[in-house]
From TrEMBL:
Pathway involvement of the protein, from the record: Cofactor biosynthesis; thiamine diphosphate biosynthesis
Keywords on record: ATP-binding, Kinase, Nucleotide-binding, Transferase
Protein name, per record: hydroxymethylpyrimidine kinase
InterPro entries associated with the record: HMP/HMP-P_kinase_dom, PM/HMP-P_kinase-1, Ribokinase-like
Naturally occurring in which organism (per UniProt): Kriegella aquimaris
CDD domains named in the record: HMPP_kinase
């Protein structure tokens, strides 16, 4: 009898009890795109749609053991990394993943929540740049995070080009700079690839507060499409299209009293079967 496997994607990220962001959004997006979601929890923020109330840490050894257990049993085709809020946690994840250099790593540098709450310690940023950037394959900062990394204010698309070039110089291979926070009618994102070529993506912007977890969702979608065999440009293009439609289909739904979630399951795919090698 012929056997198959599902393309698995692991998310290494923080918790969101309200279900819109973090590891919950990651699992929803990965599943909706036909991949098999596995996970390792890095932190336990207490939050809802109105913001983050507090953050409880997970033991670093527990994070390492979670990742190792999945890598040994269900090796992922791609990995999404989200909330790493301490230097020790960054080092733990880096040391664990360095053993698997062929697995594509998508890092969403979760520094500021949609609500505006800062989610990372200042001392951690230097550790991320020095230790994590060299091993990841693509970085997906929003404008708030890009402003921190590039050490400049970003108000225009031209500023985005400058910021992206500065971030590339920090040693990361590929950067997708998301322009959703610009006060423009159109949403522009810029992809800076390993050869310093810049590809612009433009989409209609919707008038809605239901964007909680959009960054988590996008990075997970990109990882999912990489697991399905897409190139970086293809994964980014399809990932952004998925998020754009998820926002559209959830834009007029009231969930919670703050920034509501996306509709991750507007068009769910059945789990993809690959031949078992």
């Amino acid at each position: 009898m012929k056997q198959y496997s599902y393309p698995s994607v692991m998310t290494i990220a923080g918790f969101d009890g309200s279900g819109g962001a973090g590891i919950q959004a990651d699992i929803k997006a990965i599943s909706a795109l036909g991949c098999y979601a596995t996970s390792a929890l890095t932190a336990l923020p207490v939050q809802n749609t109105t913001g983050v109330k507090s953050i409880y840490p997970i033991e670093y050894m527990a994070v390492q053991e979670q990742i190792q257990a999945i890598m040994e049993d269900i090796p992922p085709k791609a990995i999404k990394i989200g909330m790493l809020h301490t230097s020790e946690l960054v080092l733990t994840v880096v040391e664990t993943l360095k053993k698997y250099p062929k697995t594509p790593l998508v890092f969403d540098p979760v520094m500021v929540a949609t609500s505006g709450h800062k989610l990372i310690e200042d001392s951690t940023i230097g550790t991320i740049v020095e230790m994590l950037f060299p091993i990841i394959d693509i970085l997906t900062p929003n404008l708030d995070e890009a402003a921190i990394l590039a050490e400049m204010e970003i108000h225009t698309v031209e500023d985005m080009y400058s910021a992206g070039k500065k971030i590339k110089k920090l040693g990361v291979k590929n950067v997708l700079l998301k322009g959703g926070h610009l006060k423009t009618l159109e949403l522009t994102s810029l992809f800076f690839d390993a050869d310093d070529k810049v590809t612009a993506f433009q989409q209609e912007k919707y008038n809605t507060n239901n964007t909680h977890g959009s960054g988590c969702t996008l990075s997970s979608a990109i990882a999912s499409y990489l697991a399905l065999g897409e190139s970086f440009v293809g994964a980014i293009s399809k990932g952004q299209d998925y998020v754009h439609k998820a926002i559209f289909h959830g834009k007029d739904v009231a969930i919670g009293k703050g920034n509501g979630p996306l509709n991750h399951f507007f068009n769910p795919q059945i789990l993809v079967k690959h031949d078992l090698v």
